[in-house]
Amino acid sequence: MPVFRTADFELASGATLAELEIAYECYGDISAGADNVILVTHGLTSSHHAAGAVTADRRKGWWSEVIGPGKVFDTDRYAIVSANMLGSCYGSTGPASVDPRTGWRYGPRFPDITFEDIVRTQHLLLRSMGVRRLVAVAGSSFGGLQVFQWAVSFPDFMAGIIAMDTGPKDIFDSAAIAARLVAEFSRDPNWHGGDYYAAGGLVPALTALRIKTLKSYGFEERLKGLADASARERVLLETAREWADEFDANSLVVLLRAMARYNVEQDFHRIRARLFYELADSDEIFPASIGAEVLTKLRAAGVDVTFLKVHSRHGHYATTEEPEKWVPQVRRFLAQLDGA
């Protein structure tokens, strides 16, 4: 797994990470001029493994259906870079990392981060690869939040942005959600104020949380092909347990707190890139009902935006479950970016 490393990364809060590591994967070859790169950004609880073979810990690439030769993110033409975001737990610096100044895991002492911090680490990674301008940044859900942040933090660094199943601000009161999670986690005897690593982690608490999350995302729609109810429950439990075995509870809290501080609507005037924006009518996480207000504000700020509302029964999984409903439009959008 390739990892970008740098030292003394200053966060928006003023705190400094003595060592910064960002894990990433790249699909396709970067051109001699490094002008064929698309950055893809991942969801809250997923990783930088966006495509390709199932990993040793059984993670499937979340955009395997759309990244590859001849696909919409065509690796014969583009180099697709996917970075594990700052604060996550799949190889990038986060709460489970060891603080070199103390020799102990950061745990609950990991400093507050912002979406601006997250995209600045990705920018440093890309610059280290020789990239001076992207074709596009693309992502859905929490990844889509990063897309919008990219557009306002580095407005001239990409020709286009592709934001799906997402929005330009926190609509969930994520600070309250993070506080509720800490309260739930604190009931686990392994919690120890967030220093649970030596105690065996929080697998039961995370499994229960993941089951609720998967249901809210519409995961049960995927299981309708299983006629037996007990088989559906078993798949749901196994899927939740696999995630709980590998994800870090402190990362979840840190990233939700970052989301609580996220709002780029006041910076729409900074956006220079063309925008493709998609929402699904069955999504209860980022409902299509937010689209009209967001579009009005974007267009008032002079943003060149193409909007697509997808009809799907798959809720928040619409983008990954039915890519055929947005791939043709994104192909046309990427074609418009050629030479931009």
Folded structure, characterized:
The chain has 340 residues and is an alpha/beta fold. It has nine helices and twelve strands. The protein has two domains: 243 residues, 3-Layer(aba) Sandwich (Rossmann fold); 83 residues, Rna Polymerase Sigma Factor, Chain: A (Orthogonal Bundle). Strands 1-2-6-3-9-10-11-12 form an eight-stranded mixed β-sheet, sandwiched between helices. It is globular and about 55 Å long. The mean pLDDT is 93.
Low-confidence stretches: none
What's the gyration radius in Å? Answer: 19 Å
Largest sheet: 8 strands, mixed
Oligomer: single chain
Q: What is the first-to-last residue Cα distance? A: 32 Å
Number of domains: 2
CATH topology of the largest domain: Rossmann fold
Amount of beta strand = 15-25%
General shape: globular
Concise account of the structure shown:
The chain has 340 residues and is of the alpha/beta class.
Helices and strands in order:
Layout: E1 3-10, E2 16-27, E3 37-41, E4 67-68, E5 73-74, E6 79-83, E7 98-99, E8 104-105, H1 115-128, E9 134-140, H2 142-153, E10 158-164, H3 174-185, H4 203-217, H5 229-246, H6 249-260, E11 274-280, H7 291-300, E12 305-310, H8 318-321, H9 327-337
